[in-house]
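1st attempt posting a full record on here, be nice pls
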Amino acid sequence: MKSFISNSPISEFHKALGQFINYQTVLSQKEPERELYLAVPQTTYEDFFKLELIQLVIKNQYIKLIIYHPERETIEQWIK
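the predicted structure (as tokens):
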């Protein structure tokens, strides 16, 4: 789960992407049947993750997303 609260969303995205790839690499070896998702706040998804570059990276890297609402503590959307 990433909050993306720094002043540089692209820097936070790069950090999250690196962590995601590391976790996915390990999981593929230890528990290949498991699916890994990147959880991001709804506002971050709406403001940043819909940018063309970010959508292209998500698609090319096969990143699955969970969009959540932090205040309500609810999952708003699962994106495979």
